[in-house]
From TrEMBL:
<feature type="domain" description="Peptidase M20 dimerisation">
    <location>
        <begin position="3"/>
        <end position="95"/>
    </location>
</feature>
<protein>
    <submittedName>
        <fullName>Peptidase dimerization domain-containing protein</fullName>
    </submittedName>
</protein>
<dbReference type="GO" id="GO:0016787">
    <property type="term" value="F:hydrolase activity"/>
</dbReference>
<dbReference type="InterPro" id="IPR011650">
    <property type="entry name" value="Peptidase_M20_dimer"/>
</dbReference>
<dbReference type="InterPro" id="IPR017439">
    <property type="entry name" value="Amidohydrolase"/>
</dbReference>
<dbReference type="Pfam" id="PF07687">
    <property type="entry name" value="M20_dimer"/>
</dbReference>
<dbReference type="InterPro" id="IPR036264">
    <property type="entry name" value="Bact_exopeptidase_dim_dom"/>
</dbReference>
């Protein structure tokens, strides 16, 4: 999560040249940071900066003295995740230098991207195959959503799997939708999968030549 506060001299909208027009500066940041990131980062890293909150001003004919932006930056690349703050600060500083205004960026580092371990993926696939067709493992595109499980993967090898819970009837509902209603029978399959994966990974049963 990043929160940007921009401050300068406010004034009447008829005389923006006598102000530092933080509203205009804010607009430059909103469009400019994304544009710069598009050229500074590899598109294959799937880095997404989204501004979700914009606050500033109380009247249409007055330029305020302060504005505030808040948003999130997510990336599929651990390298980008680690250096994103430094890069964004550099870009914002360059964009706002021409305005001679003050700004402050608060950066709260979120979770890193999930990066599954190949051997753990293989264990999941073998476990699913052992369930005699009750469950199928399919690959999914990497999500840009934040996931705390990523912290485990920075210390120990592992893999995250999403458990399908749609019963095939009606519309599919996302996890965060208010009418999300999972088919609880999926819990049985999920339990079987993780049990089989744990047994497969146990040293007495594990065949590293297949991993």
């Amino acid at each position: 999560m990043l929160t940007l506060r921009i401050s300068g001299d406010g004034g009447h909208s008829a005389r923006p040249h006598m102000t530092q027009d933080v509203i205009h500066a804010m607009a430059v940041v909103i469009t400019g940071v994304n544009a710069a990131l598009d050229r500074r980062l590899d598109a294959r890293d799937a880095t997404v900066l989204t501004w979700g909150r914009v606050e500033g001003g109380v009247a249409g004919n007055a330029i305020p003295a302060t504005v505030e932006l808040q948003g999130t930056l997510r990336s599929a690349s651990v390298e980008v995740w680690e250096r994103a703050e430094e890069l964004v600060r550099e870009i914002i500083g360059g964009l706002l230098a021409a305005y001679g205004i003050d700004w402050d960026l608060e950066w709260i580092q979120g979770v890193p991207p999930v990066d599954n371990d190949g051997k753990s993926n293989t264990a999941f696939n073998r476990a699913a195959a052992a369930l005699d067709g009750d469950l199928e493992i399919v690959g999914t595109p990497q999500s840009s959503g934040g996931e705390d499980f990523a912290w485990y993967l920075r210390d120990v090898p592992g893999a995250m799997a999403r458990l399908g819970t749609w019963d095939g009837k009606g519309d599919k509902q996302d996890l965060h939708q208010p009418d999300f209603n999972p088919d609880e029978r999926a819990l049985i399959l999920g339990t079987k999968l993780f049990t089989a994966a744990a047994l497969d990974w146990h040293p007495e049963n594990r065949d590293d030549s297949l991993a």
